[in-house]
């Protein structure tokens, strides 16, 4: 509804991260099973730290081309960035001093009683000066109703 109603291109950040890691693993000859094993490790362990570095390198190769494109973007499923310590991608887009070629929206789940939205593992979402806007089911229903032909 948001993408269609506001002319946004949806970018599933989880899908992009997985694709980036798979592509990078193929490029450098890393074993996918080893990567999955490292993902099971707790944050702070040696293998998990190596995986976090691997994810960073993979995203550094993939995300700039996506995030600097000229079209307005709706980023979804971004919690995974918090899992690997890569929330800086969101922080850079939220920085009002940073140049952006078009709008960048972040859509994420939020519990009204839980304070500001967070990424995976309770990593604070970098929201920037504008903060956040709660979009509830009533908003979505109203948008859908307004798009229906009379």
Task: Give me some keywords for this one.
7 helices; 150 residues; 3-stranded parallel β-sheet; 3 strands; mainly alpha; single chain
Report what the structure shows.
The chain has 150 residues and is mainly α. It has helices spanning 2-6, 13-28, 32-40, 46-67, 79-83, 88-94, 137-147, and strands at residues 9-12, 73-76, 104-106. The model has no long low-confidence stretch (mean pLDDT 87). A three-stranded parallel sheet has the order 1-2-3. The longest helix is centred in the middle third of the chain and has 22 residues, at 46-67.
Overall pLDDT: 87
Strand tally is 3
Assign the structural class, choosing from mainly alpha, mainly beta, alpha/beta, alpha+beta, or little secondary structure: mainly alpha
Based on Cα principal axes, name the global outline: globular
Give the biggest beta sheet: 3 strands, parallel
| Low-confidence runs of at least 5 consecutive residues | none
> Can you write the helix and strand succession as a string?
HEHHHEHHEH
Amount of helix? 40-55%
Output the number of helix runs.
7
Termini gap: 18 Å
Proportion of strand residues: 5-15%
Rg, nearest Å: 17 Å
List the helices and strands and how they pair.
Layout: H1 2-6, E1 9-12, H2 13-28, H3 32-40, H4 46-67, E2 73-76, H5 79-83, H6 88-94, E3 104-106, H7 137-147
In a few lines, what is going on in this structure?
This protein is mainly alpha-helical. The protein contains seven helices and three strands; from the N terminus they run H-E-H-H-H-E-H-H-E-H.
